[in-house]
Design brief:
By secondary structure, the chain is mainly alpha-helical. The chain is 86% helix and 0% strand. It is elongated, with a radius of gyration of 19 Å.
Length: 84
């Protein structure tokens, strides 16, 4: 039973290049969507200037991390294939 499960999950469905590109696109689009939604929601709140400034700084963190993950993803996937 264990051999069957290992063989089943060992099959590839798509190519590595497609997976890398899809991961990049998902990260970039998610970062853009999160940035737009967070700024839109911040503008709808009644905040002081300091609160708005720190809210913007905090709302830039997650989209920036998603963009960094999207940029590093092909490098990490290539390194993982070379050193399993």
């Amino acid at each position: 039973m264990k051999d069957t499960i290992i063989r089943f999950f060992g099959h590839t469905i798509s190519s590595d290049a497609f997976d890398k590109r899809l991961g990049q696109v998902v990260c970039f689009v998610a970062g853009l969507v999160m940035l737009v939604v967070s700024v839109w929601k911040l503008t709808r709140l009644d905040l002081s200037e300091a609160q708005f400034f720190f809210g913007l700084l905090l709302s830039f963190c997650v989209p920036l991390l998603l963009v960094i993950v999207g940029l590093v993803l092909p490098i990490a996937a290539t390194a993982w294939k070379q050193h399993p």
